[in-house]
Specification:
Blueprint (H helix, E strand, L loop, with lengths): L2 H10 L2 H28 L3 E2 L8 H12 L3 E5 L6 E5 L1 H12 L5
Antiparallel strand pairs: 1-3, 2-3
Helix pairs in contact: 2-3, 2-4
């Protein structure tokens, strides 16, 4: 076993890494929910300043949602650099997550 594998095994057994992995799994769902709810309420793309985008986990969540085609980034509006709206695929998944109680 290489030293990097030993390090990874030690770290993966910690609570900190468990929490990080949980956040990486759950944060995209919460961000998708925020975008979909705000988009449904206004019918407009959601400006970035209305979303929690600070921090590495939130940045990764945003990029993963974009990469998976679940949200679409549009040109920013007044006071924002970018705006986001759910794709049809993203809205469909949001409705499933909502029905399953993910957002309670």
């Amino acid at each position: 076993m290489k030293a990097i594998d030993s390090l990874a095994a030690l770290l993966s057994a910690t609570d900190v890494m468990s929490q990080l992995l949980m956040a990486l799994r759950e944060e995209p769902a919460h961000m998708l929910g925020d975008i979909c709810r705000k988009h449904q309420a206004t019918g407009e793309p959601v400006p970035d300043h209305l979303l929690q985008l600070a921090g590495i986990v939130n940045d990764v969540a945003r990029r993963a949602l974009l990469s998976a085609g679940l949200i679409v980034q549009t040109r920013g509006q007044r006071l924002s650099l970018h705006s986001y709206e759910p794709s049809p695929k993203g809205m469909k998944l949001y409705k499933k997550l909502e029905a399953e109680g993910t957002y309670r």
